[in-house]
Every structure is written in C-alpha cells, then in structure tokens.
Design a protein that fits this description.
Length: 266
C-alpha cells in the first residue's frame, strides 16, 4: 500500500464564528485579536440611558454538522425605554412613586377598601415603553360572597368578600354528587348587585342496581337510587330472605355504593 493516509481531526476550538454583530447605541467587548471560535463568549452592553433588550451574553457553538461555528443567540438591542407612572383610580401604588421607570422595572398596586382589581396588580415596564400586562382597574365591589347551592363548592380556592359586576364564578359538585343534566354551574354578578340564580345544581350519584335472584325491592325504579336513598328487599313466594332487608346508598372511599352486602333469597 503506497501513500500516507492520516485522519485529520479538527478541535472545536479551531472552528471559527463570524465576527459578532455591531448594535446601535451599544457595543461588545471584542477579543484582543478580534477572532472568535467555538466556546468564545461575547458580552454586550448599552450606552448610558439605553436599556438592553434580549440576552447580553452570546456564545459561539458548532452547527449541526459540526463543521462550522454559529452564535447561539441573536445580538440584543439597545433601546431608550421610559414608562410614565401609571394612575389607577380607586387604587394606589405599594412602591415608592418615581417620575419615570426603565425597562423591566416592576410596580405593584392595591385597591382601596370596597374595590376589587380587574387585571394584574403586578406589572413591568415593557420594551415598547408601555406597561405589561396592561394597567389594572379597581372597580367597586357590587356582589357579596355567594352561598353555594347544596352539595357544591366554588372552584376558586379562597372566596372573596366582594366581587365586581360581570364577575363569573363556577361551582363544582362535591364527592359523591354530579351535575343535574342541562344545568349551568356558573353564576354572574349582575348590575343589580345580585348573583344570577341557580335553583339546584348537584344530585347524588347512582348506586349499583339492587338486583338479587328470586327477590324484589320496594323502589319504583331500581336504576335510579342515588346517594342517601334506601332500598328494602323482599323475596318472591316460596323463598325466605337471609340478611338485612334494608340497605342505604352511601359514600365509600369517594365512590357511591351500598352500605352492606345484598341479602339472599333461599
């Protein structure tokens, strides 16, 4: 075999990246030789009175084919960001007020007594010199905390003392109960300072059908005995009942079932 064949291995540190992008109103700390290879790190900073939008640090990494280098993130942007102090009627700032705010400065509000917040009470100065999320409102509480229908509870963890007009709350049935068909589990705070009404919402779940050989029950419909209901067994002529005649539909380990085993007809 003639010739000298050798495998050429390129170290990642030998793979170059293009020179980082220059950005208006900012700069990066260049390499002393102004040369950039895989694992090189560049840090950007903005001129005075400008805010850095994006990531200040970028790193040279290898491309998917492992042959070239690329920057892992785009260069950031330097912008003048200034948010005016927001005003919330019937509310107040919990921070010390300032004449203006710069990028990502956060502030918080609280509503006066008798008022509730619509929106987020914690906001930040965004990159477009506007508050993110939007400035909240404090609206007068018009509905007091509602009384849930029987066998239900509110989906929210801690009910409030008051709710503004237009608030929608939703109930869910407690363990062992289910929604009555075609009922709406939500209520709305109306402009009359009252909640929309729900007459009934939840009903007990059904117990298993109470059938025994050579027996019968006193129920009008064996398939519709629900939580809290009772059934009494008897036997057809020529058989006698062994066991407790009356059973109750109860909650067992979060499931609806009978409180004891069915009797038998012998």
């Amino acid at each position: 075999l003639k010739g000298d064949f050798r495998e050429i291995i390129v170290s990642p540190s030998d793979i170059p990246c293009n020179r980082p992008e220059n950005i208006p109103d900012g700069q990066f700390d260049p390499d002393p030789k102004d040369e950039y290879y895989v694992d090189s790190v560049v840090i950007y900073r903005c001129n005075r009175d400008f805010s850095l939008i994006g990531n200040s640090t970028i790193t040279c990494i290898t491309t998917e084919d492992g042959r070239n280098g690329k920057w892992n993130l785009p260069a950031p942007e330097c912008k003048k960001v200034k948010c005016d102090p927001p005003k919330v009627e019937n509310g107040k700032l919990t921070n010390l007020p300032k004449p203006s705010y710069t990028y990502n400065e956060a502030i918080s509000f609280e509503c006066n007594s008798g008022y509730s917040a619509v929106g987020n009470l914690h906001i930040k100065c965004g990159a477009n010199s506007s508050w993110v999320p939007a400035i909240p409102e404090c609206v007068k509480d018009n509905c007091t905390s509602p009384v849930p229908p029987a066998h239900s509870t509110l989906k929210e963890d801690v009910p409030k003392e008051g709710y503004p007009v237009g608030t929608v709350l939703t109930y869910h049935c407690i363990s062992g109960y289910e929604y009555i068909p075609e009922t709406n589990p939500s209520i709305t705070c109306l402009n009359t300072s009252k909640w929309s009404e729900i007459s009934s919402l939840c009903q007990g779940r059904k117990c298993p059908t109470p059938n025994i050989p050579n027996g019968k029950t006193d129920a009008d419909d064996d398939d519709d005995i629900r939580l809290g209901g009772n059934v009494t067994f008897s036997c057809v002529s020529g058989f006698r009942l062994v066991g407790e005649a009356t059973l109750k539909c109860v909650l067992k380990d979060s499931k609806v079932d009978w409180n004891r085993e069915f009797p038998v007809c012998e």
